[in-house]
Amino acid sequence: MLSHDVFQWGPSQSLSYNTAGGAATSTTAFANQTIWLRVVAPGALTSTGGVRYKVGNAPAATSSDVLLPFNWVEYIRIAPGEQLSVLSNDGVAGTLSVSEALT
User: How do residues 25-70 score in pLDDT, each as one tens digit?
Assistant: First the structure.
């Protein structure tokens, strides 16, 4: 069970991402005490709007990775040292808000 109300929220960052035809953008490796990420991509709701994301060691998001629709808050479990990579699902570039939950 995910109980996000008990997280201690740590650093946050804005990750700019490219259009679907561009290259994926990744964060730096997250610290050992970061165990969850809270991410949201603000944007106008459309049938194809959102970002594709991938978590791992040096990941590169592609058009077949998990879709995060615009304005949807997602909680992602990560391991120490992993990174988050994102790419637009359509022709719109934007910014992903990433907040770290600490142990």
Answer: 999 999 999 999 999 999 998 889 999 999 999 999 999 999 999 9
Q: How far apart are CA 30 and CA 59, in angstroms?
A: 13
Query: For residue 85, which of 37, 34, 33 has the smallest C-alpha distance?
Result: 37
Complete domains list, the chain, with CATH: 13-102 (2.60.120)
Q: Does the predicted TM-score (pTM) go above 0.85? A: yes
User: By the 8 A CB rule, do 101 and 39 touch?
Assistant: no
Q: Which long-range contacts (CB under 8 A, 24 or more apart) does 4-9 make?
A: 4/36, 4/38, 4/75, 4/101, 7/36, 7/101, 7/102, 8/101, 8/102, 9/38, 9/99, 9/100, 9/101, 9/102
Token duo for residue 31: 């610290």
Q: Dihedral sign, CA of 29, 35, 41, 45?
A: positive
Rounded Cα gap, residues 37 and 53, in angstroms:
12
